[in-house]
Design a protein that fits this description.
Belongs to the DapB family. The protein is of the alpha/beta class. The protein is 33% helix and 25% strand. Strands 3-2-1-4-5-6-12 form a seven-stranded parallel sheet, with helices on both faces. Strands 8-9-7-10-11 form a five-stranded mixed sheet. Helix 1 (13-24) packs across helix 7 and helix 2 runs parallel beside helix 3. The longest helix is centred in the middle third of the chain and has 16 residues, at 129-144. The protein is elongated, with a radius of gyration of 20 Å. It starts with a strand and ends with a helix. The structure holds NADPH dihydro-nicotinamide-adenine-dinucleotide phosphate and the ligand O=C(O)C1=N[C@H](C(=O)O)C[C@H](O)C1.
């Protein structure tokens, strides 16, 4: 039976692509397009806003998410505060969640871990296949390039992005730190403008570009004297993230409560 999927933040950049990805997947049914309680879209047919949906979406209108909402799985790409409010309802209802929202602080992450004791949660700061593979590749590079390698992570995104560095950049840095057996928070450097010293060997430096319509680009640098390795991923369509999230939604719908990663979904 096809999974009935509800999309939270359905009017967002990702939300609209998620509506299409859910609607176009043969194994999922778009069961809810949820917007905020005061949204002007409430009651508006999704086909009037998102073009190219199949006839399966006909008759579905944007609605507010609450305890009455009926779905097998929820997908959330919103903002931390909204996601946590959605999570509380999902826990109360026992509905599995796929979460792509980034910019969570430590306490907000703890709320996710706590919730995953009651419902299955797939959390990924990037749902593309390439980035999830890159999370493995940077660990190999971190181990093999040697202690002399300078490690930096660069990311570029569209002008509307709020959080920085991106969730993906931080995930790459954390994967590198794990491979080096470093504490990420001890080695992360976000700003060198006040530093009057050369960098140390035990650093992961982050740099950020915001501009135009860049969907998402990430590069991990491993720089030695005389050579440098650059591992780059470029997303050119949000559909890649949306299709990954729909894949995760199908995977998680019958899982036991727990905290799952996209690497587990992809068996990487
Ligand atoms: N993991 C991954 O693969 C990816 C993750 N992302 C992440 O997804 C998130 C969304 O990105 P994007 O779609 O570009 O952002 P948008 O700003 O376009 O969309 C955000 C959506 O969240 C809704 N929202 C915000 N706050 C709340 C709230 N308190 N309650 C309910 N709804 C809320 C907004 O509603 P309204 O319009 O009414 O404000 C909007 O629909 C970001 O964290 C981004 O980093 C993005 C791409 C890929
Ligand atoms: O906000 C975005 O757009 C994206 N956010 C995610 C992140 O913060 O890493 C994933 C992707 O790069 C797009």
């Amino acid at each position: 039976m096809s999974a009935r999927v509800g999309v939270l933040g359905a009017n967002g950049r990702m939300g609209q692509v998620l509506l299409a990805a859910t609607n176009n997947d043969g194994d999922t049914q778009l069961a809810g397009a949820y917007v905020r309680a005061h949204s002007q879209l409430l009651g508006v047919n999704v086909n009037n806003v998102v073009k190219g949906l199949s006839e399966h979406a006909e008759g579905l209108a944007f609605s507010a998410f609450d305890e009455q909402s009926q779905c097998d799985v929820l997908i959330d790409f919103t903002l931390p505060a909204g996601m946590l409010a959605h999570l509380d309802i999902a826990v109360a209802k026992g509905t599995p969640m796929v979460i792509g929202t980034t910019g969570l602080d430590e306490q907000q992450m703890q709320r996710l871990y706590d919730a995953s004791e009651h419902i299955p949660v797939v959390f990924a700061r990037n749902f593309s296949v390439g980035i999830n593979l890159l999370l493995n590749l940077v660990q190999t590079a971190a181990q093999k390039m040697g202690d002399d390698a300078d490690i930096e992570v660069f990311e570029a995104h569209h002008r509307h992005k709020i959080d920085a560095p991106s969730g993906t950049a931080l995930a790459l840095g954390e994967a590198i730190a794990e491979a080096k057996q470093w504490q990420h928070d001890d080695v992360a450097v976000y700003d060198r403008s006040q530093s009057e010293q050369a960098k140390s060997q035990k650093e992961i430096g982050y740099s950020v570009l915001r501009g135009g319509d860049i969907v998402g680009e990430h590069t991990a640098y491993f720089a030695l004297m005389g050579e440098r390795l650059e591992l780059t991923h470029k997303a050119s369509s949000r559909m890649t993230f949306a299709q990954g999230a729909v894949r995760a939604a199908k995977w998680v719908q019958n899982k036991q409560p727990g905290f799952y990663t996209m690497q587990e979904v992809l068996e990487l």
